[in-house]
């Protein structure tokens, strides 16, 4: 971002450039991203605008120490941006944790209700067993010998033996059902208890994450306020350094639309010049990952919210195979992201005070490239 510009040029060189007027931003001939095929557009007079050297070249005093100040401001800005992306990821993880907690709580409730029904079945079957046992008790000896003694005829004996068999079978069946229902009730009750315990654990995790998120959000707000205060206090000359080069490099032509990815790029190009805002996903303000999310959403594709999540989703791409619309992930912690715009350029939302712009794709250290 800004840090690479300052490191490359140096305070003395920048002051010299400003003193001769070459840092003033020109409006070069560029591709109109809203025009199919990338038709070139110029300034209002029909030609490429050129920088006008300032009449007052006494900028040395104004820029004395600007290199160190802007380097420090760039560091603060990058830290705030990195923390913002981490918070996007933390919020997404918190949302998943809350959803998992709710699922486990519902599962625990269903398991408890099923266990209660199984216990009711076990009690019903046991009641039948008790009833049959009572019938046996009231009838005295229900064995085959007594049936033979009491039978008044061979036909009566057959009836008595059949009744004995049915009574014994009913008792056995009821007893087996009671045992099975009791075992099922115990199993389901165990599952319900495990689900409830898991839900409590996830709920505690969600609370802890919420508290941590609140603390880090406060830290984020403090850093954002510091960066805003310092950027807003920059002089015009310092602000020119902060913003860097033009939004669109001279001669850039947007690649043709040949699919969703290049269409997302063409949509993103319509946001050139939009202000940076932490946590914003458009349509008029953006942070780095928010610009990616918004641009692809217009083409019906959902991207993860944070640069870290964007860095591990989609498909990896080798630098030599980079195509318009691919996401370029920057820095070891995947704390910044832009969209490859073709012609060796990346479109990104750099930081507070710097609008959405095109820069060389290698202006920052690349940690990965992803295709969606």
UniProtKB/TrEMBL annotation:
Keyword hit for Signal: yes
Family matches, as InterPro entries: NLP_P60_dom, Papain-like_cys_pep_sf, PG_Endopeptidase_C40
Positions with biased composition (Low complexity): 46-58
Keywords: Coiled coil, Hydrolase, Protease, Signal, Thiol protease
Coiled-coil region: 178-237
Domain NlpC/P60 as annotated: residue spans: 258-372
UniProt family annotation: Belongs to the peptidase C40 family.
Name this polypeptide is given: NlpC/P60 family protein
Species for this entry: Dietzia aerolata
């Amino acid at each position: 971002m800004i840090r690479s510009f300052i490191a490359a040029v140096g305070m003395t060189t920048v002051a010299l450039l400003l003193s001769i007027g070459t840092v003033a931003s020109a409006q070069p001939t560029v591709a109109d991203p809203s025009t199919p095929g990338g038709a070139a557009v110029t300034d209002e007079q029909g030609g490429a605008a050129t920088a006008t050297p300032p009449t007052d070249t006494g900028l040395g005093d104004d820029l004395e120490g600007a290199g160190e100040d802007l380097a420090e401001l760039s560091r603060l800005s990058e830290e705030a941006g990195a923390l913002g992306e981490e918070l996007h990821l933390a919020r997404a993880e918190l949302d998943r944790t809350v959803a998992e907690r709710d699922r486990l709580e519902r599962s625990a409730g269903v398991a408890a209700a099923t266990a209660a029904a199984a216990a009711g079945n076990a009690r019903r079957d046991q009641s039948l067993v008790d009833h049959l046992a009572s019938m046996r008790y009231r009838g005295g000896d229900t064995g085959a010998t007594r049936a033979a003694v009491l039978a008044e005829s061979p036909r009566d004996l057959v009836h008595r033996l059949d009744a004995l068999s049915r009574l014994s079978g009913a008792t056995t069946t009821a007893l087996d059902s009671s045992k099975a229902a009791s075992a099922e009730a115990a199993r389901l009750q165990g599952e319900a208890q495990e689900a409830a315990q898991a839900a409590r654990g996830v709920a505690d995790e969600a609370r802890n994450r919420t508290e941590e998120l609140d603390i880090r959000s406060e830290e984020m707000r403090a850093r954002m306020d510091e960066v805003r205060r310092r950027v807003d206090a920059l002089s015009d000359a310092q602000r020119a350094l902060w913003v860097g080069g033009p939004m669109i490099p001279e001669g850039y032509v947007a690649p043709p639309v040949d699919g969703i990815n290049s269409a997302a790029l063409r949509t993103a190009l319509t946001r050139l010049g939009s202000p940076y805002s932490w946590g914003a996903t458009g349509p008029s303000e953006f942070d780095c990952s928010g610009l990616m999310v918004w641009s692809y959403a217009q083409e019906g594709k959902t991207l993860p919210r944070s640069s870290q999540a964007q860095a591990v989703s989609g498909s990896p791409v080798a630098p030599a195979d980079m195509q318009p619309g691919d996401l370029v992930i920057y820095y070891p912690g995947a704390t910044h992201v832009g969209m490859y715009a073709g012609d060796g350029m990346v479109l990104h939302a750099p930081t507070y005070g710097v609008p959405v712009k095109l820069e060389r794709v290698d202006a920052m250290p690349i940690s990965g490239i992803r295709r969606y």
